[in-house]
Amino acid sequence: MTEQLGLRIGACSDPGQQREGNEDSYLVLTAPARAVGVDAVLAVADGLGGHQAGHVASPALVAALSTLFRSGDYQQIVAYSPQHPDYYVVVLKEALERINEQLCDMTIGHPELSGMGTTGTVAILSGVQLFWGHVGDTRAYLLHDGILQQLTQDHTWVALQVESGA
Predict the structure, then answer these.
(1) Which residues, other chains included, contact 74 with Cβ-Cβ below 8 Å and sequence gap of 6+?
(2) Computed from CA positions of residues 154, 97, 119, 104, in that sequence, does the dihedral angle turn out positive or negative?
(3) Which of 9, 55, 108, 144 would you call most buried, defined as having the most Cβ atoms within 10 angstroms of its Cβ?
(4) Confidence class of residue 1 from pLDDT cuts 50, 70 and 90?
(5) CA dihedral defined by 61, 63, 65, 68, rounded to 10 degrees?
(6) Contacts of 10 by beta carbon, 8 Å cutoff, 6+ apart
(7) Which tens digits make up the pLDDT trace of 27-84?
(8) What is the pLDDT of residue 13?
(9) DSSP notation for the chain
């Protein structure tokens, strides 16, 4: 289905100007790697710079998403039918919440991981529909017919200040 829609996927990563290390991770799942039910799962995560173990958190998020969507286990985390219009919205919400708990559990008994965090942006393409969920300030954009459209809003203190007019 992704070939019929003309989906082109690329990835590039850069540590930026503030940090030496790169804590970016990404996931591209298309046929035949992904489970039946979705045409593509795309994710990007960026470990929180300045926090401990961002270099652990971002690949852990991506690995957990990969496991859920390669195996089809994502279908077990939502109690109603995939035909429901917001099925994949709820799948993304539940997946991100579950993975957040897994990341918190990783810190138990590992003080070197305490305070680790990552941003995460995930998109699911199913048929002609695109669903996304995210946390943090790793943005999702849609490029269509030469027009770039920002799909997500940053979850940061600065974004809240701008939104409130401060």
Answers:
(1) 35, 68, 91, 95
(2) positive
(3) 55
(4) very low
(5) -140
(6) none
(7) 999 888 777 788 899 999 988 866 678 889 999 999 999 999 999 899 998 888 888 8
(8) 76
(9) -HHHHT---------TTT-SS--EEEEEEETTTSPTT-SEEEEEEEE-TTSTTHHHHHHHHHHHHHHHHHHSGGGGS--S-TTSTTHHHHHHHHHHHHHHHHHHHHTTT-GGGTT--EEEEEEEEETTEEEEEEESS---EEEETTEEEE-----SHHHHHHHHT-
How much is the pTM?
0.84
Residues 158 and 164: their CA atoms lie apart, in Å, by 10
